[in-house]
Amino acid sequence: MRLRRRSEGVRRRTLLAMLLVNAGRVLPFHELYAEIWPDGLPADPANALQVHLVRLRRQLESGEPGRELRITTAGPGLSLSLEPGELDLEVFSTCWQQARHLVRSEPRTAAEKLREARALEWARAGRRARPQPAAQGPWPSRPKRTVSR
Questions:
Q1: What's residue 140's pLDDT?
Q2: pLDDT tens, residue by residue, 97-120
Q3: Edge-to-edge order in the sheet of strand 27-28
Q4: How far apart, in whole angstroms, are the C-alpha atoms of residue 11 and residue 89?
Q5: What is the maximal distance between C-alpha atoms in the chain?
Q6: 78 pairs with which residues across the strands?
Q7: Main-chain dihedrals φ then ψ at residue 39, nearest 5 degrees
Q8: Phi and psi of 27, rounded to 5°?
Q9: Is the pTM here over 0.85, yes or no?
């Protein structure tokens, strides 16, 4: 029984991960089935998926009362709706892209965007973001390579 519970938890995490990575687009049921049950489908995959979805909603709502997981059935699949900036991956990617575009014209702003992205990474890893000193000049110079023999 314990092994079954553990595998159910893995399946729910897989479902959540797939919905988060594909937020805003309809994820076809057949793709969900293939990822959640890679070793073979249960007798009634639609019902089993619904059970996991109900349990996932309950689990996430218990962690943050009043917050609703916005998963909808859309034609041949499921879709997760997120507000802009709600997913760390999106915020990280936005900061990274902004830094790339600003690196030549506004290096200090670009460095700040990279620090924001790094703070997200540190927070996700469970560490406090370390404050970084402002970059001097356009960018700090690259360390020289030395060869040890």
A1: 47
A2: 999 999 899 999 999 988 888 887
A3: 27-28, 77-80, 71-74
A4: 21
A5: 64
A6: 27, 73
A7: -95, 5
A8: -100, 110
A9: no
